[in-house]
Design a protein that fits this description.
Layout: H1 13-22, H2 35-59, H3 63-72, H4 76-83, H5 87-100
């Protein structure tokens, strides 16, 4: 045999049946998963855990105080510092609340504090 050549081996039907009889395929009883399914499950579990962490962080905040600070014109970073939560969690909460009650959480101009 030389390198780079493909050698094809053929079995007769009798040889194939003898090979199958000698090396049977035994099912293990376990479900077969593709790696995509496993990766998808891992990603969805991580997303679920992240959402639970964000929910826990915002649950510890007094919503009335948050709304009062928001309506008084405090900037998002100032509100986040005052309530001891991250800016991204605060922005996500305000965005979610805007979808539910847009009149209660108006969109403000960027970076300006109302007088």
């Amino acid at each position: 045999m030389s390198i780079g050549k493909v050698t094809v081996w053929y079995m007769t039907e009798e040889e194939r049946l003898a090979y199958v009889a000698k090396h049977p395929i035994v099912p293990t009883g376990e479900a077969v998963f593709s790696t995509e399914t496993i990766d998808y499950k891992k990603v969805s579990e991580r997303k679920k855990e992240a959402l639970q962490r964000k929910g826990k962080l915002i649950d510890s905040v007094d919503k009335d105080t948050l709304h009062k600070l928001f309506m008084s014109g405090e900037t998002i970073p100032e509100i986040a510092t005052a309530l001891n939560i991250s800016i991204s969690v605060l922005n996500k909460y305000i965005g979610d609340q805007r979808k539910i009650e847009p009149d209660k959480w108006p969109i403000r101009s960027k970076g300006r504090k109302r007088e």
